[in-house]
Amino acid sequence: MTNILFPLTSIIDYLSLGFSLWLALYLLARGFPSRVTIRAVIVLLALSVFFLSASLNLYIQLPGTTAIRAIMLVVALSAWCDLTQKFIRPATQSNKSWIVIVIYALGFVTALLLLGTHDAFVLENTNLLWVGRMNLGIQYSVYAVFLWSASISILYNLYLGGKPRVGQPNIYFVAASFLVVSEVVYGSLALILTRPSPRVVQDALIASSVIFLGISVARHQTLVERRSSLYELPIQTLVIIILVGVYSALAWQWSHSAVIVILIAALAVFTHSLYGLVGEILSQSLSKRESGYRHQLRHLGQHLPNDVSLQTRLEDGLKLLCQILGATGGFIATRQSNLFVVTVSIRSISLGEKFAPIETTSDDVVQPSAEYADTLAWMVPAFKDAEQLALIGIGHPMDRHHYSADDLDLLAEAANRVALIVALAGIHSGETNHEKSLQSESDGLISTLITNPDPKFLKMVEEGLRKLTDIITLGQSPLARELGITGKTHIDQGKALQQKLTDAIETLRPEGARPMEPLPREWENYVVLHDAYVEGVANREIMARLYTSEGTFNRIRRKALRGVARYLLEKTN
Fold first, then answer.
1. Could you read off the pLDDT of 404-433 as tens digits, one per residue?
2. Beta strand residue intervals within 27-96, DSSP E
3. Backbone φ/ψ region at 536: left (φ over 0), alpha (ψ -120 to 50), beta
4. Which domains, and CATH codes, for the chain?
């Protein structure tokens, strides 16, 4: 019997140690600072200490370790009871909060009694494969009362939670809770039975509860505040298993000591998980700073007075462009006769400097001549219809080696806005100003800059468009969760996201009927997305309809994609 129990118990404790510690730190990274998630993290960390002690106890018998494992179960059960109550309806929570307070108080007293009594468990040093038994007395009585009180409270909270719904326990979380209660029933009876009870059953029940909690996190994003893909947890878990397996094999080859292997495995899980946790914290800190920065820019854009001059509007837009791109400076030159004269400059080319028109028929970014290479990184002409009305130059990035493709797309998009503003102002032809349209286009330039979507969101939108006809995949995509789309099933979510993406594409459609080919420039954005993703037309055919090259087609597609992403963000916020 011992020949079977020892390796089986050892393997279960070893695997459970790694998975509970990994899941705890994963949830901490994805759920902090949610108080609900923190409770689950406390449960898992307590269980990881339980399994670490259980694993080591098979090889090194230290007095008091059984009491430590009992205390870890007390901590885990107290936090689990508190966790299940958080899934109750808010109106009911306030009336039942006294239950959790009583459980915590009883758990605290139980932990003190177990910690302060050296002989609470009998035959501790020789009872390696069996559930520790206790002498009948005050310690056993209080411990048993706590175990049964916590278990009944957990089941009662699940009952009050009702049927699984969005934001409430799902079937896997419920199963994990029932497994915890089953362990309590088995463990509390084993404490007083004359015949020893195998410890492997108790450990297997606890391990199963952790596994079901992990499945709940992976499939239903339970306790996860920052949404992730359905495959993130399984893939990362597989990577951790491989790494820990390699380290454990090396540790065994080096030491031939099971204790060293256990400690190395725990250290490997902890360090790799901690690395991911630090990365998540830094990422969230950066995202928070960027959100605050964008909020300031949005506030600026919403409070521009209506009577400011064109010069001021162009200056404000150029300042925002330089700030967002992290550029050393930039300029805007407007057309006067056959030359472009610098009318707005920020730490760049002097006002009044003159440029010849760039020999191109599109608004693709171009590199400056050798004369300006030290000052400027890129220049982009601004067209209205087929006429070049302005020229934008941008300096080198301050803290990077070069600009990304997204940065250059934003620069080209800003140039289009500048061309419209210049055309409406009638700078080059003496036309009458259209104040309302000028105000709208000036605000549009500011809006284009301050609502610039981040690359991660752009990728989600692009992937959503590629799967536009596959409502099953759409319903499971992170974009649906990012936009707050809910439904009874993934199919309903997919249909809702499909409609939202289609509506976003339609916002790019100019007024009036679609003209004959070759299509005007104002139809490019709409045609590129609508024909490719709604009608399923091949890119080559769309290029032929637009009479454009592959490079220009890709630029138009990226610009249109940014417009759709910006629309979705504005509608969500």
1. 877 887 787 777 777 767 766 664 444 444
2. none
3. left
4. 2-229 (1.20.1070), 310-450 (3.30.450.40), 455-572 (1.20.140)
